[in-house]
Amino acid sequence: xxxxxxxxxxxxxxxxxxxxxxxxxxxxxxxxxxxxxxxxxxxxxxxxxxxxxxxxxxxxxxxxxxxxxxxxxxxxxxxxxxxxxxxxxxxxxxxxxxxxxxxxxxxxxxxxxxxxxxxxxxxxxxxxxxxxxxxxxxxxxxxxxxxxxxxxxxxxxxxxxxxxxxxxxxxxxxxxxxxxxxxxxxxxxxxxxxxxxxxxxxxxxxxxxxxxxxxxxxxxxxxxxxxxxxxxxxxxxxxxxxxxxxxxxxxxxxxxxxxxxxxxxxxxxxxxxxxxxxxxxxxxxxxxxxxxxxxxxxxxxxxxxxx
Length: 307
Fold this sequence. Notes:
Number of helices: 5
Mean pLDDT: 89
Strand content: 25-35%
Helix content: 25-40%
Strand order of the largest sheet: 4-3-2-7-8-9-10-6
Order of helices and strands: HEEEEHEEEEEEEEHEEEEEHH
Low-confidence stretches: none
Radius of gyration: 31 Å
Largest sheet: 8 strands, antiparallel
């Protein structure tokens, strides 16, 4: 019994010591990791290091683009009303604001040798203090590109992946509207107004069952993927047949999560290529929707039979 007590006492005395040793080892390992990370960071080469960018412009084969940050929102300078998806300028700033280089070229050749005398891409970044950093991107080399920081006059090689952020067209950078899921199962009512006349299809009316199924098929087939104008002005609506005097208005009531929702579509004239111009609710984007889908939304066949 006495021996057991002595063993227990020894364990109780050793346990705090083990905990201290464990703590010291953990602290040592953490410091070693931090030291290694600091050494790795110190060994990195950066072609740029801009704390906060509020303007970026660049020139590519697709044209010239300038994005400015206004009250935490990026806008397309050439058309401030353009529905710009924020991820695109954010990716560019993330890539070029603090751009890690693969290596810095010292005592190199003339700019012409790297394709930097007539660069394929040029990028200008402006920080919140108005300081500009200009970059030129030249020839490809292996899986990298030559890059000149014109501000520091230093040449680097950078990963080819950074070029991908500059290769989007303006259309690809548009933030299109969300469109709801509508079908015969959740469409409650559709009201069509054209030329001062109104047609209503109501799911509560048993005689409208066929019509509701037809227009629901049209509403459910809409895809907002192609646009004719991304920020149409009121004065230009007539050219699309979307001014108040010309357009057909479709007001659909449907359910989502057991709650009633409303959708308004304005359907305009045809584009001559099998589509009609369509606007959604209060959006300023003019979409292209196939004539067949629009005919289903408007239940054109039923209208023709009625006539």
